[in-house]
Amino acid sequence: MPPRKTHKASIAQFRRSGGLDPRQPIMENTHKRALRIVGEVFSQLLNVPILSGALITFLFLRLPTTIPNRIGGFSYALLFLALIPLGSLFFYIPGKLRDWPRIIKRQRIASFVFMIVSYPVGFVVLRLIHAPRVFEAIAATYTLVTLGLIVFNLILRYKASGHAAGVAGPVTAMIYLYGVIAAPLIALLPLTTFARVSAKGHNIWQTVVGAALSLGITISVLWAYGFSPLTGLVH
C-alpha cells in the first residue's frame, strides 16, 4: 500500500503543479479583517472629541491665571466641544441592530447631529460669559468645520473625512500658535489616513480634503481673532 500523503505534502505538490495555496483566500480575509480592526481602534483613539478635549485642556494650562473667566471658559468649552459630542459614541452600542456597517453609519449621523448642535451653542455660551478669546475661537472653528463637512457630505455628496478634519484642526492650531515645537504632531495626519483607509471608512483623497478644509478654517479663524502665529501667546 502506498504511503498516505500528508496535508503539507499535498499543498507542496499543489504549488509545484502551478496552483495556488488553497488557504490563501482565508489568510487574505483574516489579514484584511485584522487591518480593519486596527484601523477602527486608531480611528477611535484619534476621535474628534478626544482631541478637542486635549487641545482645550492644553490651552487652558497655557493661559495666564489673571485672565477673567479662565476656569469657567475652560469648563464650558470642554463641555460643549468635547464631552457632549463624545456622547455620539454610545451609538456604537449595537442593541437590536447586528449589521456593523449600519451601526457605523448610525454613529456617523449621530456624531454630526451632536456636533452641529453642541458646537454653535457652546460658541454662543462662551461669547455670552466673555470667556477667554482662544476658547471662543476654537468653538467658532469647530462650528465652521462641521458646517463645511455637512456641505461636502450632504450637499456635494463627497465623503470628506470628519476624522481627518478633527485631527488636522488641533494640529494646525498648535503649529500656528507654537511653531516648530508642535511640528511632530504632523505625524498624526498620515496616521489618521492609515486608520480611516484601513477601516474602509474613507479613501486617501477623502482624508486629504477633510484635513485641508479644517486647516484652512483653523488658520483663518485664529487670524481673524487676532492671534499672532508662532508666538505661543493665547488670551
Tag the structure with descriptive keywords.
235 residues, mainly alpha, 9 helices, globular
Shape: globular
Quickly give the structural class: mainly alpha
| Nearest-integer average pLDDT | 83
For the record, the count of structural domains works out to 1
Number of helical elements: 9
Total count of strands: 0
Rg on CA atoms, Å: 23 Å
Q: What helical percentage do the residues reach?
A: over 70%
H/E order of the elements?
A: HHHHHHHHH
Which parts are unreliable, with pLDDT below 50 for 5 consecutive residues or more?
none
Largest sheet: none
Distance between the termini: 89 Å
Strand content bin: under 5%
Structure, described:
The chain is mostly helical. The chain has one domain. The protein is 70% helix and 0% strand. α2 crosses α8, α5 runs antiparallel to α6 and α6 runs antiparallel to α7 (162-178). The protein is globular. The termini are far apart.
What is the strand and helix layout of this fold?
Blueprint: H1 7-16, H2 24-45, H3 48-62, H4 70-86, H5 100-128, H6 133-155, H7 162-178, H8 188-198, H9 204-224
Helix pairs in contact: 2-8, 3-4, 3-7, 4-5, 4-6, 5-6, 6-7, 6-9, 7-8, 7-9, 8-9
Briefly summarize what is shown.
The protein is mainly alpha-helical. The protein has helices at 7-16, 24-45, 48-62, 70-86, 100-128, 133-155, 162-178, 188-198, 204-224.
